[in-house]
Amino acid sequence: MRPEEIRDLLGAVARGTCSVEDALRRLKDWPVEDLGFAQVDHHRHLRRGFPEVVFAGGKQPEETERIAAALVRQRARLLVTRADEETLRRLEARFPRGRANRRARTFVRLPEEGPGKGLIAILAAGTSDIPVAEEAVETARAMGARVTTVYDVGVAGLNRLVPHLETLRRANVVLAVAGMEGALPSLVGAVAPGLVIAVPTSVGYGTSLGGLTALFGMLNSCASGVVVVNIDNGFGAGYAAGLVNRAVVAAAKGGSPEETSGEDTSGEETAGEETAAAGADDLPARETQGGDQQCE
Asked: Tens of pLDDT along 270-287?
């Protein structure tokens, strides 16, 4: 649950427009919902400013779907990563307002999509690096950031990056995604005034060693202000960039990062979306509650 939802619920109880019993029904799965095979952390948004993200790798498609349904019932932003084709098809059928990115292997369902706040620039050295870059894109956008992408601008053709230097200078954070020798982040770090997040990929031949060569090169970058995430970890890079971007936006407005998380507060769009595919126990909270609507 988002902080404003808890505040509204407590206010409704205090005003007498929501009964204690109805409030308890709203909070029955908070902060943790036990699905037997997973403990869904509904408290994470309150702690971190963003709800739990579902890593689909290694999970059965139906397990990922049930975890996603639990999050949607709480009106959370839904981000699923590393989803295979069967899982993406199930999620698309269950949540028609969501959006799958098959190149990134992600599924995102947001209360509403807008232009985003701040600016994160995400670069891919080669076209082969785009899947990892797109995972970062989907993550950062889910966190409410405005994202611009520049692809196929690796060091083999420096002239391709030059037209985009102004974008790098304007961005609050720049992600540089590269395989092979992993040189792109050092180049970007020489011209970008903000934080540069280096993302090594497993793209390359023999001695690229599945991304280790790019990782070691990035860790040894001479450019200042370059930090590095794990190999192929577009999600980790996008999440970190989203946090930094949120803090920069908040500082510019004189507020706190929690106030600029990009969350929609209406919660109105959850009603009815999953009814065709779900049983009563899988419906959004609004439809199963049955109490005074002032509790919303």
From this structure: 434 443 334 333 433 333
